[in-house]
Structures are given as C-alpha cells and as structure tokens.
Design brief:
The protein has 21 helices and 11 strands. The protein has 460 residues and is of the alpha/beta class. Helix 3 packs parallel to helix 5, helix 8 crosses helix 9 and helix 17 packs antiparallel against helix 18.
Length: 460
C-alpha cells in the first residue's frame, strides 16, 4: 500500500494550487503560542486576582458561578484593559515574542509554518485557512518572499476579489489577535457570519485539503462546513502528531480522507522523551478499539493490538504497539484502555459501552425513565451494508447522522472488557449502569438537552 505521504507529495506536484492548508492550534502551540481558550482561562485568573478572589483549578467554573455566564473574550478584555493601547499591550504578551522568547525559538514561525510557506513560495500552495489568531503563518510566508492577502473579518471577505485572482491568501476564520471580535467561546464557534460560510463552502468544494494540527473538537461551524461538502474532486490529507479523536475520525471517514501517521512518531517522541527524563510512571491513554477484531472476544491486558478498520481505530492500534515496545524494553509505561464514559456534565452527552448490549441499554433506559421503548435486535451483518449507504448519504447531508458503519461494526463484534485487575489493584467498583444512565438523563433534562417527555420519570 502506498504511504499517504507519497500520495500527498504526488498530488501537490500534479495539481499545484489545487490544495489548501487548514492550520489548527496544534501548529502554533508547538511554536509556543497559547490556544484561544488558554488565553481566556488566563484572563479569568487575572480578573479573579483583581477582585481578590481565588479561581482554583477551574477558572471557567469560577467565572460561570461568579457572573452567571460563560467567560467572554471581549468582556474580559474590557474588564482588564479599558483603552485600546492597554488591550494591545495585554494581547501582545501572548502572541509576540520577547528577546528571551526569540533566543528560545518561541512565538516565532516553527518548522511547520516554514514548511508550508516553502510550499507557497514554490507555487504548490496558494490558500491557507486557519483557526489561529496569531500571525505566524503570515510571517513565515513573508520570510519566504510571499506577500499574502489576509481575510480575517466578514467585511474583508465581502470586499475581496475572487480567490482565483488573489494570489496567496490567508483566511483567518476566527479573527486576528489584535481584533477583539475574535471567536473563542463555544457559542461563538457554533456559527459563522454568512459571508464566512459562503467563502468556506466555496473553498471546501473547490480544493483538496492538508489538515495540520486541527482536532475538530471545538470548532462546530467548521466541522459542519466540511460535513456539507459534496464534491470529492481532491483528497483530504489529515496530519497530526496525536491519534485523531472522535470528531476528526468522523470527518476523515466522511471525506474519505487519508490520515498521515505522524501520531505514531509523536507517540514515540513523547514516550521516549518521558523515559529519558526518568518519569515513572509514563501513562499512555489508548483505547479498547486498538484491540478489537474477533467477535465475542473478551478484552484483557494480554490482548494484542489488531488492525481494525478506520483511521481512528488504526492510529490507536499503531500507537499502542509503540507504547508496548517501550514496555518490552523496560520503560515504566502504563497503558490504559478507556471503554466508555457516561454520566452527568459530559460535554459529548455520552459515549459507547462495551459491557452491555444495545438491547439491554434500551431496557435499562426504559426502566429508569418509566417509558415503554420498543426494541428489536438484528444480526450485525444485516446492518453493515445499510450503514455504508448511511455513510454515503452523510456525505451529502448537512445533518449529522446518529449511526455509522464503524459504530455498527464495533457493536456487532460484541466485545466484553475484563476489568477485574482494575477492581482488585485499585479497589474501584464502577457505578451501576442504571444509576449512571439515570444521572445522565436527569442532567440532560435539567440542561435542556432532552425534553420532559423523553426524560420520563426523571423529569422531576
């Protein structure tokens, strides 16, 4: 099988200008720039100190309790720095390097910025879309002899010429750090201005993408833009140093993209560095999906990584092999295999469970809510091809489908997890599933995630 990196190099060489780079926070974090949310939390901590209070380990929670709303970037800036000059000075401290930073190579264009800029200088890339507020990609482009046009507000987009006439362009979806209108909070990231959406739709339909350092976890409006994509003119290549999470994996599968396994190298680098530093233990968070493959298998600490389908599953298995290699060579690596996370205050509203069948889950929900919920179990093989069709429909639908081929594939394997060692060695007993489900549904009702009718007896 051809390495995706080779395919990407061939695609760029054969189609100069046909690809756009999507640059996420991971690219800038590696250069020493904090993420937007990290800046918000730091501003909240500073505000708490001004008020003579202690925000503790949860600044966002403190702010919510103190002011009755989520932290807002603009309001925080107004509270801490009233004049434009004060705001500019405050923000520059996060994004602009000091003399010491420059010596350390921080807050200046990193290797990834320079590599992307070189592709622009040689004519292979002409379009950059970024969720970052900093100006590192612009600086890297200028250092490479390329002067980009920057679109960072709806007004600049509305007044811009067509992309085909614009030369090198940087689209800053969430704004620029010196503009207090940047998008940062979950509510702000949930929807874009109409002009931004229209431009984004055009870019996504007409270009292939090289995704760098974007987790897809927080940027809801950007995820939806990719979910609206109809054409498959060019391939999407997704590169990161960590395994793709659930949202990224969904988009990779949806777009029929290729994941470039920088995550295996990343796992190797992180564990190797931790071992050299003498850290003990070194905890590697894997996933049960690294071990799936045999129907009805009981997953134990002795189960070996398999070759499961899907970018997320495969990346977890590949990273697991790296971690086990360090274990075999004597490194104090501890591997954990989370299987499900259910309970109240979960931003993702529940996940999968590998120690219960779908039918038993429906039965339990019926019991705790007092509602009659009809359920019919079908053999897994009868759903696989229909789910392939669902995956195809998802390519054209703006609505997120609740099912997918991968979900049915995993469910049909009916794996069980043997957690006896966790119970014995740590003395931990899991909360009964009926209590977890009841707590979750009650919280979902109180947070307006489900209606009174759906919550049933728990809506009290």
């Amino acid at each position: 099988m051809i390495d995706p990196q080779v395919s990407l190099a061939f695609a760029l060489h054969s189609n100069p200008g046909a690809y756009a780079a999507l640059i996420g926070s991971g690219v800038s974090v590696s250069a020493g720039i904090p993420t937007g949310w990290q800046i918000v939390l730091d501003l909240v901590s500073r505000l708490a100190l001004v008020l003579g209070e202690e925000p503790g380990d949860d600044p966002a929670g403190w702010y919510q309790e103190r002011f009755g709303e989520e932290p807002d970037y603009s309001k925080l800036l107004d509270a801490l720095a009233r004049s434009p000059a004060e705001r500019s000075a405050l923000l520059r401290s996060y994004f602009e390097p000091t003399a010491e930073d420059r010596v350390l190579g921080l807050k200046v264009p990193g290797a990834a910025h320079k590599a992307l800029a070189e592709l622009a200088a040689t004519g292979f890339l002409r379009l950059f879309v970024t969720t970052n507020f900093d100006r590192l990609i612009e600086q890297a482009l200028e250092d490479a002899g390329v002067t980009p046009r920057v679109l960072s507000t709806p007004d600049s987009i509305l007044g811009s010429p067509p992309l085909s006439q614009a030369g090198c362009t940087v689209v800053k979806l969430h704004g620029d750090y010196l503009d207090t209108r940047i998008k940062n909070t979950p509510a702000e990231l949930d929807a874009y201005h109409e002009s931004v959406d229209e431009l984004l739709d055009r870019i996504i339909e007409e270009h292939g993408f090289i995704v760098c350092g974007w987790s897809a976890a927080w940027d809801t409006a950007l995820r939806r833009a990719f979910e609206r994509r109809k054409s498959r003119r060019y391939t999407t290549y997704w590169a990161d140093v960590v395994p793709p999470g659930a949202h990224a994996s969904h988009l990779i599968e949806l777009l029929e993209g290729e994941f470039i396994k920088a995550n295996v190298t990343g796992t190797d680098l992180v564990i190797g560095a931790a071992h050299e530093m003498g850290l003990d233990p070194i905890v590697h968070v894997s996933s049960f999906v690294a071990l799936i493959g045999t129907k009805g298998a009981i997953l134990t600490p002795d189960s070996v990584p398999t070759t499961p389908p899907g970018a997320y599953y495969r990346s977890k298995a590949d990273s697991d092999r790296v971690a086990r290699g360090y274990q075999e060579n004597g490194a104090p690596v501890v591997i954990t295999y989370p299987g499900s996370v259910w309970g109240p205050n979960d931003p993702h509203l529940g996940e999968s469970c590998q120690n219960a069948t779908s039918k038993s889950l429906v039965r339990t929900v019926s019991q705790v809510t007092g509602r009659w919920l009809p359920c019919m179990a079908l053999p897994g093989w009868t759903l696989r091809w229909p789910m392939r069709v669902v995956d195809r429909v998802q390519l054209m639908s703006p609505i997120r489908m609740p099912f997918s081929f991968q979900a049915v594939y995993v469910g049909a394997l009916n794996h069980k997890a043997d957690d006896s060692l966790t119970r014995v060695e740590f003395g931990i007993e899991p909360i009964p599933i009926d209590q977890s489900l009841a707590d979750t549904i009650r919280w979902m009702y109180e947070g307006n995630h489900v209606s009174r009718r759906l919550a049933g007896d728990l809506a009290t």
